[in-house]
Design brief:
Blueprint lengths: L13 H18 L1 E5 H20 L2 H10 L4 H13 L8 E8 L6 E7 L1
Antiparallel strand pairs: 1-3, 2-3
Helix pairs in contact: 1-2, 1-4, 2-3, 2-4
């Protein structure tokens, strides 16, 4: 039974969920936003917020922590060079979820997760 377990599983195993969140976070960083289902957007939003907070530090330790999370250097470079300095004076709330309506095929709620 799942009593009091609050992790959103998204119908996946732990490793598949971790890979999904990493790939969604990479897409949000590289393309400044994505369109996905509401559940996935709510799950990846805190991940992206924490990554941007790390990038705001701008030191070598933060860069290495980001490199350990991502599979390529492209999102790390963008976080450290563009996004981190952009939000230097902001205390949080770097992303926004905008509802786009139901998806035609299965009726799932589609949202846009974008950097503010």
């Amino acid at each position: 039974m799942r009593h009091r377990n609050t992790t959103k599983t998204l119908g996946r195993s732990r490793s598949a969920r971790k890979a999904l969140l990493r790939d969604l976070a990479t897409s949000v960083i590289v393309y400044d936003g994505i369109q996905t289902t509401q559940g996935k957007a709510k799950a990846v939003k805190p991940v992206v917020e924490k990554l941007i907070t790390k990038a705001k530090k701008g030191n070598l330790a933060a860069r290495r922590q980001l490199l350990a999370f991502f599979t390529t250097e492209q999102p790390v470079n963008k976080l450290m060079d563009v996004i981190g300095p952009k939000y230097k004076d902001r205390e949080g709330g770097y992303t926004r979820i905008v509802k786009m309506g139901p998806r035609k095929g299965d009726g799932a709620e589609v949202v846009k997760l974008e950097l503010v």
